[in-house]
């Protein structure tokens, strides 16, 4: 005889071994007009390609970047001090949209531009000291589709996500403690990709006394 369910629901696991996945992927979050507005705006961003020192040798990073943020939200990223520049119009609109729709509070956005599939980002976590505890990081992609990897620091479990233009990936706190991510080279990609990561920093972290 079939046993009563009593409203407990199905016993099959609902997927994965995570209680709640540490990230949420929302495909097509931005419509084509919103994507276009940001892409046009980005042509005027003062992107730079800072030099980093690896094993005593200095190299330019394999992408270009800029940091827009509120006053008092300077950032030390990959060991480089980056000063906050004022928010451009559409980057600011996107920040407010994320706040309204996901209660995702941010006070800065790091914009990375990958000119083509030769440009990349190595394995890392966004776990700088100035990131506000309990804050989520929202990543929005525009332009070329690229594969994005997420890897667990202990188990080495690896997940691949294809990020297409307009997609939103929310990396939930405390994902950065246990997982790393990377954007590998893809030599078949010839078009540029732009990525915005909205972050919440502790205000005044780098201000003296
Ligand atoms: O370009 C991406 O999708 C990732 C960017 C990233 O991981 C970062 O800016 O820390
Ligand atoms: Fe990152």
UniProtKB/TrEMBL annotation:
SUPFAM superfamilies xrefs: Clavaminate synthase-like
Domain of life of the organism encoding this protein: Bacteria
Name the UniProt record assigns to this protein: 2OG-Fe(II) oxygenase
Coiled-coil regions listed: none
Alphabetized InterPro entries for the sequence: AlkB-like, AlkB-like_sf, ALKBH2, Oxoglu/Fe-dep_dioxygenase_dom
Annotated Fe2OG dioxygenase domain residues: 105-202
A Pfam family it matches: 2OG-FeII_Oxy_2
């Amino acid at each position: 005889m079939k046993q009563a369910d009593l409203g407990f629901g199905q016993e099959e696991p609902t997927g994965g071994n995570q209680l709640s996945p540490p990230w949420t992927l929302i495909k097509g979050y931005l419509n084509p007009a919103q994507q276009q507005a940001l892409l046009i705006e980005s042509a005027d961003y003062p992107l730079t390609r800072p030099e980093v020192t690896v094993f005593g040798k200095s190299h330019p990073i394999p992408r270009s970047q800029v940091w827009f943020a509120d006053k008092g939200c300077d950032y030390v990223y990959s060991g480089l001090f980056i000063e906050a520049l004022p928010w451009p119009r559409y980057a600011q609109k996107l920040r407010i949209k994320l706040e309204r729709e996901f209660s995702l509070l941010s006070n800065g956005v790091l914009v990375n531009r990958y000119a083509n599939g030769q440009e990349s980002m190595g394995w890392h976590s966004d776990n700088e000291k100035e990131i506000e505890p309990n804050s989520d990081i929202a990543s929005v992609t525009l332009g070329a589709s690229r594969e994005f990897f997420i890897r667990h620091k202990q188990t080495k479990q690896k997940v691949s996500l294809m990020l297409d233009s307009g997609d939103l990936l929310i990396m939930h706190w405390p994902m950065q403690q246990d997982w790393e991510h990377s954007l590998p080279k893809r030599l078949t990609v010839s078009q540029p990709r732009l990525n915005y990561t909205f972050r919440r920093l502790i205000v005044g972290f780098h201000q003296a006394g």
